[in-house]
Amino acid sequence: MVGVFTFPALLPGFMAEWRLSNTEAGWISGVFFAAFAAAAPVLVALTDRLDARRIYMVGAALTALSCAGFALFADGFWPAMLFRALGGAGLAGTYMPGLRVLVDRAPATARARVVPLYTACFSLGTAASYAVSAAAAEWLGWRAAFVLAAGAAVAALVIVLALRPVDPPPQAEPGRLLDFRPVFRNRAAMGYVLGYVAHMWELFAYRAWVVGFLAAAAALPGADGAGWSGGVLSPTGVASLGAVIAFACSIGGAEVATRLGRGRGGMVYMVLSGTAAFAMGPAAAVSYPLAAVAMLVYIGLIQLDSAALTTGAVEQAEDGRRGATLAVHSLLGFGAAFVGPLAVGMVLDAAAGQGAVTWTWAFAAIGAVGLLGPLAMAWGLRWSVTKP
Question: Which residue intervals define the domain Major facilitator superfamily (MFS) profile in the entry (predicted)?
Fold first, then answer.
């Protein structure tokens, strides 16, 4: 995870050094998740047939290669696109396959807690990525940050190599590897998957642009941003602290949703986060400290539903199709994670500025899609086989 957000963490520097437009920056951030979405159907579906541990190790190796390649060869838009895409394929081989590594080794009674904990740990990895990348770049330069990320991926490979092999459970009705029609017919699971699509649009648009937004907010006239260039409320500090807050909110949100009903709780959370998006631009117009605090609150709201959505999809999956369901979950969710950052960049370029009004439009694009999530979940819950 250390290399996942290295580019977004250092975004203002890359935009200045390589003279990137907002749209180009959105492409580099988004292509990571486009590659994830393209690779996930095969890599995650394979976990129904192979030990997920083997898939994970392939993903970790791809991640190490992508970070090392970026450090050695990236000098502009196209090389950055290439190596970030390779990194996205690497994450596709580690994220959901990593979940299968845990689920296949955990007793059935523990899965309801294992899945939310694992999903929440993505946020801890995000925090580490922002913090380590910013610190390494400040002391040794941005290329060193990517070298460090490559080393972390190698360490993850070695750790998983030491786990005991486990064969996946047999499929009730074995079919072709990429035949996802049974998953799409499972409307209860698809309700959670489509809710996850809206969530991922919102979450990764935030993560791709949080540093860029706060850097722009600090530069606004009267923003009082000059004294916040370092420390916990600096742009990268907010990104890192926000990821830690997201970890806590993901676990807490899952626990509350279990008591309220996972589906109903998820819908409430999505309404709150989607509505909050519309306040981010106006907050920047008031002051930088308010914008920074608002972003911390916003990421907490976004992350409340994350674990509940993935757990719901796993619970609603048919026996023997858990990997296929997670593959569709990843394909559609990370497809949205690709388009969200790109859409924000396009809105910023279309509005031709970095002012508070421009960012208000950008966050409106984020929040509007986020608010579609509860509608999709309401549709899916009609066919739920467990308590909604």
Answer: 1-385
Over 80: is that where the pLDDT of 161 sits? yes
Q: Distance between alpha carbon 69 and the CA centroid of its chain, in Å? A: 22
Domain boundaries, the chain: 6-381
Compute how many other C-beta atoms are within 10 angstroms of the C-beta atom of residue 383.
Answer: 14
Tell me 261's DSSP state: -
pTM of the model: 0.81
**Sequence-distant (≥ 6) Cβ neighbours of residue 229 within 8 angstroms:** 218
Terminal C-alpha separation, the chain: 32
Residue 206 near residue 342, CB atoms below 8 Å:
no
Rounded to an integer, what distance in angstroms lies between the CA atom of residue 372 and that of residue 375? Answer: 5
Task: Check if the beta carbon of residue 173 is closer than 8 Å to that of residue 181.
Answer: no
In whole angstroms, what is the distance from residue 191 CA to residue 252 CA? 22
The DSSP annotation for 45-111 comes to: HGGGTS-HHHHHHHHHHHHHHHHHHHHHH--SHHHHHHHHHHHHHHHHTTHHHHHHHHHTTS-GGGH
| Number of neighbours of residue 222 by Cβ within 10 angstroms | 9
**Residue from 57, 80, 53, 77 nearest 67 by CA:** 80
What does the buried/exposed string (b/e) look like for 295-329 if buried means 16 or more CB atoms within 10 Å of the residue's CB? Answer: bbbbbbbbbbbbbbbbbbbbbbbbebbbbbbbbbb
Nearest to 6 by CA among 70, 58, 56, 60: 70
- Cβ-based neighbour number of residue 362 at 10 Å: 27
Q: How many helices (H) and strands (E) does the chain have?
A: 18, 0
Rounded Cα–Cα distance for residues 354 and 21 (Å): 12
CATH superfamily, domain 6-381, is MFS general substrate transporter like domains (1.20.1250.20)
CA gap 384, 388 in Å, rounded: 6
For the stretch 22-79, pLDDT in tens is 999 999 998 998 998 889 888 887 887 888 899 999 999 999 999 999 999 999 999 9
* Contact partners, residue 348, CB within 8 Å, separation at least 6: 22, 23, 354, 358, 359, 362
